[in-house]
Design goal:
mainly alpha, CRAM, about 240 residues
């Protein structure tokens, strides 16, 4: 009864009453005022589908609002600056499949955003310099299958990058995956003295790798299973 009356929604005490916020009729224009967004029940389906609700500052800064799927699937939510700088928002999948999210500078520099897979399937993300120099970015597989990542000098000199297979399709022998499965590579001194190389499985399953003294004296090598089942490895003090 009360919720079907227009002036009811503009009355303060009405918005603080639980049953008011859970009734469909209540979620009309007047409902989306300050005190309404502070109430948990307000964040139900029909509330998030109302345009003006998602564009209200209080709404985007409230924890329960950002954890609701409908909120993030609405365009204006993702294009709002304050929304993209909020942790909860960036940890939600729908946010990252929205084009404008990845084209916003602050979004690409946020840790949560860069650790989400969908973010890297969007072209403009990988062409942004700051993205390729971020640690999380280099440790994600999708990022390394993109050409410009491998031809960027700083990428190849970053530790995380060298431990990823796709990245190692570049010419330098000692930091690539092919290096570990290629015979002549393992006989090259500098290759065996590189930490990343010794921590890669393929490297340790290759015979000539174990016959090289410096390889067996490296910590990573000795802590890998394949290494210990090799005769010459165990005979080295």
């Amino acid at each position: 009864m009360c919720n079907s009356i227009t002036q009811c929604n503009s009355i303060t005490q009405c918005n603080s009453i639980a049953q008011c916020n859970s009734i469909t009729q209540c979620n009309i224009a007047q409902c989306n005022i300050t005190q309404c967004n502070r109430i948990a029940q307000c964040n139900i389906a029909q509330c998030n589908s109302i345009t003006q609700c998602n564009s209200i500052a209080q709404c985007n800064s409230i924890t329960h609002c950002n954890s609701i799927a409908q909120c993030n699937s609405i365009a204006q939510c993702n294009s709002t600056a304050q929304c993209n700088s909020i942790a909860q928002c960036n940890s939600i999948a729908q946010c990252d499949i929205t084009a404008q999210c990845n084209s916003i500078a602050q979004c690409n520099s946020i840790a949560q955003c860069n650790s989400i897979a969908q973010c890297y399937t969007i072209a403009q993300c990988d062409s942004i310099a700051q993205c390729n120099s971020i640690a999380q970015c280099n440790s994600i597989a999708q990022c390394n299958i993109i050409a410009q990542c491998n031809i960027i000098a700083q990428c190849n000199s970053i530790a995380q990058c060298d431990s990823i297979a796709q990245c190692d399709i570049t010419a330098q022998c000692d930091i690539t995956a092919q290096c570990d499965i290629t015979a002549q590579c393992n006989s090259i001194a500098q290759c065996n003295s590189i930490a990343q190389c010794n921590s890669i499985a393929q490297c340790n399953s290759i015979a000539q790798c174990y016959s090289i003294a410096q390889c067996n004296s490296i910590a990573q090598c000795n802590s890998i299973a394949q290494c210990d089942i090799t005769a010459q490895c165990n005979s080295i003090a």
